[in-house]
Design brief:
63 residues; alpha+beta; three-stranded antiparallel β-sheet; 1 helix
Length: 63
């Protein structure tokens, strides 16, 4: 995950920076977690990793 924020403008700024750095747009994921019952809407910006580092994912052996 690159960033998780309630600020939509920050999400757009981070996304622009990632694209300017040459990251392929198909490798970027944007999730909008809709706020309910007093929780704010949250924006999550992630970058897909095709070859995780050794040991990555060890904390979840059931996956």
């Amino acid at each position: 995950m690159v960033v998780e924020t309630v600020d939509q403008a920050e999400t757009r700024t981070r996304l622009r920076r990632i694209r300017e750095a040459g990251v392929d747009g198909s490798m970027i994921r944007i999730d909008t977690l809709c706020g309910r019952l007093g929780l704010p809407t949250t924006y999550r910006l992630s970058r897909f990793v095709t070859d995780p580092a050794p040991g990555a994912g060890d904390e979840h052996p059931d996956h």
